[in-house]
């Protein structure tokens, strides 16, 4: 049975497992290229690359995600009411007050990030502040605060960076294989083609693994934890109804960051690309609302 403590322990273990798996994959790829090209240089470059990526993923992934989302920090004087709501919820939850960020987007939505509760950040859209009532905003903030408390945010944010690196590596080797076939020696061209094919297969598999790691159960747990914090489940239920029915799309959301939002930021289910569907990690809103209203 999941609770905040078991979920936090599980997420910390998964985070280190993913960092280890990614380093192993990069070093293994470097060793493979070194073996085929009969040089040790590539494998040492891969080791340094893996260490640097893991270092930046742990310490700077939250800043990268905030930058990707176009989120801007605010002070208490910028929105005293929003600040006070989050401050009261943080005291009730026994967590440090997260930093507040605003995303200039018409769609009501929100996400949390940060490597631990002391460095927690909650970002909300301007659409959320304009279209939701106070009790509904409180429900959303409580939900995101629960994600910080159970360490969902560390795992979610790091996976954004790791999946992004796999996509970049796939694109690099694919382009290199096209150029290598014309300009490089036959052996190098074959190596690039083989690696690009392997990564093209690995990238969607890695995305699928991410989908399994970012379990849909975490959303139900954050919903129930948020409802306990506010003692008013209908506030979050009404917020989810408004968020899901809003027709606006989020221009700054992408496949790498979509799983972090309280609700899927993409619109147009029938027109949704296969890649979008692959990255879907949210349970149906109807099921979440039904669970909140018991």
Keywords:
294 residues, four-stranded mixed beta sheet, mainly alpha, 4 strands
Shape: elongated
Helix content: 55-70%
The proportion of strand residues reads 5-15%
- Strand count: 4
Oligomeric state of the chains present here: single chain
Round the mean pLDDT to the nearest integer and report it: 82
What is the distance, rounded to the nearest whole angstrom, between the alpha carbons of the first and last residues? 18 Å
The sequence of SSEs as H and E is HHEHEEEHHHHHHHH
Order of strands across the biggest sheet? Answer: 1-2-4-3
Task: Summarize this structure briefly.
It contains 11 helices and 4 strands.
Task: Give an overview in words.
The protein has a four-stranded mixed sheet, with helices on both faces. Helix 5 (134-149) crosses helix 9 and helix 6 (152-183) runs antiparallel to helix 7. The relative contact order is 0.13. The protein is 68% helix and 6% strand. The chain is built from eleven helices and four strands, in the order H-H-E-H-E-E-E-H-H-H-H-H-H-H-H. With 294 residues, the chain is mainly α.
Topology, pairings included?
Blueprint: H1 4-37, H2 41-69, E1 71-73, H3 80-93, E2 99-103, E3 110-113, E4 121-125, H4 126-131, H5 134-149, H6 152-183, H7 186-213, H8 217-230, H9 233-245, H10 274-278, H11 285-292
Parallel strand pairs: 2-4
Antiparallel strand pairs: 1-2, 3-4
Helix pairs in contact: 1-2, 1-6, 1-7, 2-6, 3-5, 5-8, 5-9, 6-7, 8-9, 9-11
């Amino acid at each position: 049975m999941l609770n905040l403590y078991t979920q936090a322990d599980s997420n910390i273990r998964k985070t280190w497992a993913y960092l280890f798996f990614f380093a192993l994959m990069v070093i293994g790829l470097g060793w493979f290229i070194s073996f085929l090209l009969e040089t040790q240089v590539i494998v040492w470059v891969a080791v340094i690359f893996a260490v640097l990526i893991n270092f930046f993923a742990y310490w700077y992934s939250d800043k990268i995600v905030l930058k990707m989302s176009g989120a801007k920090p605010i002070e208490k004087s910028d929105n005293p009411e929003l600040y006070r709501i989050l401050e009261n919820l943080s005291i009730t939850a026994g967590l440090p007050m997260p930093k507040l960020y605003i995303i200039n987007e018409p769609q009501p939505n929100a996400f949390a990030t940060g490597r631990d509760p002391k460095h927690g950040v909650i970002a909300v859209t301007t659409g959320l502040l304009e279209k939701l009532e106070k009790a509904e905003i409180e429900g959303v903030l409580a939900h995101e605060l629960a994600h910080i408390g159970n360490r969902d945010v560390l795992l979610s944010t790091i996976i954004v960076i790791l999946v992004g690196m796999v996509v970049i590596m796939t694109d690099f080797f694919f382009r290199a294989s096209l150029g290598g076939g014309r300009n490089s020696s036959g052996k190098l061209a074959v190596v690039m083609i083989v690696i690009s094919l392997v990564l093209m297969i690995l990238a969607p598999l890695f995305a699928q693994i991410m989908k399994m790691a970012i379990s849909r159960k975490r959303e139900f747990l954050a919903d129930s934890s948020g409802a306990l914090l506010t003692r008013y489940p209908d506030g979050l239920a009404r917020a989810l109804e408004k968020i899901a029915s809003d027709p606006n799309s989020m221009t700054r959301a992408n496949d790498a960051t979509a799983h972090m939002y309280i609700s899927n930021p993409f619109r147009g289910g029938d027109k949704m690309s296969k890649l979008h569907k692959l990255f879907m990690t949210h349970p149906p809103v109807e099921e979440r609302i039904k669970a909140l209203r018991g």
